[in-house]
Design a protein that fits this description.
By secondary structure, the protein is α/β, with parallel strands linked by helices. The protein has 38 helices and 20 strands. Helix 13 runs antiparallel to helix 14. About 5% of the residues have low confidence.
Length: 934
Amino acid sequence: MNYKLLFLPLLLSSLLLSDAVRATSKTQDLQIAQQPTQPDPTRAAAQQAYKKGFELYKQGTAESLRQAIAKWQIALPLWQKLEDKSNEALTLLGTGRVYDLLGEKQQALSYYNQALPLYRAVGDRSGIAATLHNIGVVYDALGEKQQALSYYNQALPLYRAVGNRFGEATTLHNIGVVYDALGEKQQALSYYNQALLLYRVMGNRSGEAATLTGISGVYSDLGEKQQALSYYNQALLLLRAVGDRSGEARTLNNIGGVYSNLGEKQQALSYYNQALPLHRAVGDRSGEAATLTGIGKVYSDLGEKQQALSYYNQALPLHRAVGDRSGEATTFNNIGGVYYNLGEKQQALSFFNQALPIRRAVGDRSGEANSLFNIASVERDKGNLQAALTQIEASIQIIEELRTKIDDKELRTSYFATVQNRYQFYIDLLMQLHKKETTKSYAAQALHISERSRARVLLELLTEANAKIRKGVDPKLLAQEQSLQEQIDAQAKLRQDLISKSAPATAVQKIEQEIANLLSQYQQLQTQIRTTSPKYAALKYPEPLKLGQIQQQLDANTVLLQYSLGKERSYLWVVTPNSLDSYELPPQTQIEKAANDFRQSIVKVVASPKQQAAAAKQLSQIILAPVANKLANKRLVIVADGALQNIPFAALTEPTTQESYQPLLVNHEIVNLPSASTIAILRQETQKRPKAPKAIAILADPVFSTDDSRVTGKPENNSITPDLDLQRSALSRSASNLNRNGWDRLDGTRQEAQAILKLSSPKDSLAAFDFDANYDWVTNSKLSQYRVIHLATHGFADDVNPELSGIVLSLIDKQGKPQRGYLRLNDIFNLDFPADLIVLSACQTGQGKEVQGEGLVGLTRGLMYAGSPRLVLSLWNVDDQGTKELMSEFYRQMWQEGKSPVAALRAAQLSLWQNPNWRKPLYWAAFTLQGEWR
């Protein structure tokens, strides 16, 4: 575990003592009250002693701080003799501050608690606020987080009452620090962002840097490492500009932690080794301990265990000396990790058990969950499976609680990805118990945990869609959302243009940074829209399904195959309406290699049928052969995991066939689901919904370029030789088909649409071609009247920023002018498409960013959110002419033969497979049906 340092600004500078004490936040100066007109030797001596102490305090070394205390001890009895409670309180506050800096927390508390009644006696609200705040800082450092919050929340209204914005900002920042430590990341971000705004208004760069560091830490903890680095680097520049060496050291430490988590160990060491001498130079023992801990973790990860122990053993007494219980617990945990890897399980357990009560005492819920997981790992290795089960259940319970406290869906998703190893451990443990006691329900429990570990945000999004959570939201927020969407679209288009014109990398990077900033703003706004919705507070999210509930979703002709890929072992559950069987499969690496080989063999035009058959057979033998006797000729509902999400099961070899290659679709309809629980909520959403009155709305053949013949009047030459694979595949509906002049026209989409329209009544159909196939058409509310929505055009998947994934509509209007023409994922979330079926007849529309625990994050979730229970999407760059053939047959099978969408898709794919011109899976296997099969 990486140890993260946050700034804890301590307030001396914000005091106003009866208008006589002035403060400057930049240097944290404190001036004592002016001398009265008549000279007073006692007052002069007190002032002189205080000022000498303050000059020593500003030097900031351990020795000068001790000397400052000595001077202030001279001043204190003199202020008491003068009955000057204001300056007595000031000196007590300063002394407490120094003891805090020296790590002597109880001494600091003693002095703060002497200062507080004095400030109250003179009615100095600024002094009261500063003292309350600093008491909060001490309790925070001691790990007593609720006590810290209590004092901060007393200080905050006082700062606001006296108009002290620096004090207000710093208290907001430190409340964020507490919530961060408690694992309540959304709360932490809220307070950090309030503080950041105030610091920027004041032009306080030190405070701004500290808060950027706090925000960075949240993003790092939630798995958003690149975003964290961006904020840390902004903070580092500010800290160096203001000469804050202590802050610089802490930020270097934290950047080292991010690189360590990213696996870039030498980079991490470089930053840690820059931080360490800076910590020592400014006497920051807490920071020094944290950096030593970080260095120890790097050496541990590099396999240099004795070196790691050496650094941990240097850090541990420093953590104890400054009263840093959280740091002490982290170091105990990390020492335990070293002994665990060395095979010394009992020694490891001893250290994990020392870390656990400290983490509970300081309220570190995330750390507690980690310690419980570590203890569970040791108990499992010792053969104590029931003891391990108790510990991992407690760990998962904390994770679930922390997860629900994150309102931002993207951050909730990224956090959940960081803890997937806990769920994998839990599943594996249950399945090992199942081996020992097959009569108990461990396999069913493991299936339920598999459901709890996947597509949870999608379930919550679908619940919100069903509740119409956006209704009643402040129109100003929706207007801001629209504005941000337009800005994101414009910047993304500019980036695309720069890339197509081979612009300098620096120009592209600048645009990418702007896009990242806009996406971050959009993400925060989405959270605000949701949480301010009148329906949000009362919303109840569904629990993932258990075995009996899953079985209720199935019929006698349907078998569910649910996969979970693990580091040591993988698992497959086969579920029917009245049975559950489970199977142990090889490790994830072996399965994913076979899956990737299979996919690569399919998408390569030059791959021979023999090569493709061999790759299909290899994967089928691993993931289907063990359950061949359970499949019969039934419909297969696939809940895939890892690389299996990217492959077409329909193109795998039938595991019982003796032929060299017979695709699975010969005997089976194939359906894909993100999770078994998804189908239940889709059915709940649509069971009482009236059917749309009209048949199909179809969009095809948009205009992408001013060079298009529909603009210029000059004919284009997009001729295709249908007999040549290489030439035929040259025109696909994908982002890879973007040339220097823009997107190529797709004639096949027009032919496809015209063939489909011939199968439907004109009065029940709506078509948009050419310039009409535009953004306004596809976002028109009239589309809610159609049972099927079919979009045939270019598509693209962005696996870095899935929000930018989408489809390409007409980019040019009838006058030849550019117009908004990209329908992106964020746009789709705002559509109302209560269609029975949506078909995206384009490339990569079923792809997305693979996020552990959530699956492929892309267009699928947006379209389901928009209201469709079933989707037909593609897994790779589809051929223009082949797709035309497939889609024409798909609709014929649905409308003329009366088949369900899943049966019609199977029949259409079989038709192409049986045609020598289209036999290769490249042409028919890309399209899959997601969602409802009934």
